Amino acid sequence: MSTVSLDSLLEKSALGGRLTFEEGVRLYEDAPLHALGAAAHHRRMALYPTSDVTYVIDTTINYTNVCNVHCTFCAFFRPEHHGEGYTMSHDDVLGRVAWAAEQGATQIMIQGGVNPELRIEWFERLFRRVGVEFPGVDIHSLSVSEIVGLATVEGMSSHDVLARLREAGLKSLPGAGAEILVERVRKRISARKVKPDEWLGVMREAQLLGMPTTATMMFGSIETKAERIEHLDGVRRLQDETGGFTAFIPWYYVPFKTPLKGKESTGLEYLRVLAISRLYLDNVAHLQASWLTPGLKMGQLALFYGCDDMGGTILEERVVHDAGSTNEATRKQLEEIVIDAGFRPVVRDTYWNLRPEMALATAS
Ligand code: SF4
Question: What are the residue boundaries of the structural domains of the chain, listed by start?
Fold first, then answer.
């Protein structure tokens, strides 16, 4: 039993000191919520003393719902040959990119199921067209599962798939598909998905190829609290090695229409996860408020629990929506909640280059 007090651990982590795994579990489980939040907010303000809160104008295009992975927490996918399966044409995807670009989007997230009918050339042609027709839009797309699925279909290594897609215009990889990077959990909720080490391995490959990536955590299904810290620990170890994660994005499982079912996490649990993420991940620069599942008002509170970024405007999204989440927001609403919380909304791009002139609040 550790003799170090919770107050000492809060103080150490608020000043940027590294928490051990045991200390992380202890703080997460036992620290009073407001003290945990105050430490995380202190750390965030020390890292970014201005009142800026960044966001990116982006859209998510779920190009196919056909998937051979069959995660039990997912209400979006349809198995192969299912009557409700769809795959968008390149023209359809390009049409949505055009619409997003008109709204000012600088980033698109093309993401979908692991559809074995789609070959690597399909993605190369699509990315090249996006690059030619919309040079101001960065392609931040495909999860590790889709990369590994393509590698299987093509009989190639994931490294070579990444290298070819990078050549075709893929700029960075979103951190989707991490869920909880613990084998026990994945066996229960996504047995056919990439294993924890494989997820980290593909991220390492992308980062070493010069593609920045984000990391996510979907919590609130069947994992223990210690397993959430184990997930953070895996991300922290890889970040020590590569420095390639730009941001961490925890979001909670939406159970309403999924085979796995279960209960939705509370707002208080969401805030605890944010705060411990900011404190435990002492080497990941940005923490994103994933307001899509808990809603904009929780997203606003998140700004006092370690978050410095509101993520994307997510102009269109199906995966979380199909699981029963109904949240959406306009840019104006997003900026208003940031301003009402006492911060300044600043538009950024995928690489965190700030574009302050693009914020609506600045323009008006
Ligand atoms: S979460 Fe992704 S990989 Fe899993 S079933 Fe849904 S679409 Fe497929």
Answer: 17-363
| Direct distance between the N- and C-terminal alpha carbons of the chain, in angstroms, rounded to an integer | 57
Place of tokens 């069959």: 70
Q: Is the CB of 219 under 6 A from ligand 1?
A: no
Measured from the Cα of 112, ligand 1's closest atom is 7
Ligand 1 neighbour 281 (Cβ under 6 A): no
- Only one residue has tokens 């279909």, namely 153
Q: Is the CB of 305 under 6 A from ligand 1?
A: no
User: Which of 266, 333, 330 lies closest to 293 in space, CA to CA?
Assistant: 266
pLDDT along the chain (364 residues), means of 10: 87 98 98 98 96 93 96 93 97 94 92 97 98 96 97 98 98 94 95 95 98 96 97 98 98 87 93 98 96 88 97 66 60 91 95 85 54
Beta strands in the chain (DSSP E): 52-56, 58-61, 107-110, 138-140, 170-172, 213-219, 245-252, 286-287, 309-312, 344-348
Find, among 259, 258, 329, the residue nearest to 300 by Cα: 329
> Residue 201's closest CA among 237, 169, 170, 168?
237
Q: Give strand ranges (E) for 262-364.
A: 286-287, 309-312, 344-348
Q: Residue with the nearest Cα to atom 1 of ligand 1?
A: 74
Verify whether ligand 1 is closer than 6 Å to residue 71 (CB atom).
yes
Homologous superfamily of 17-363: Aldolase class I (3.20.20.70)
Query: Full-prediction pTM beyond 0.70?
Result: yes
CB 229 within 8 A of CB 28: yes
Instruction: Look up residue 288 and give its DSSP letter.
Output: B
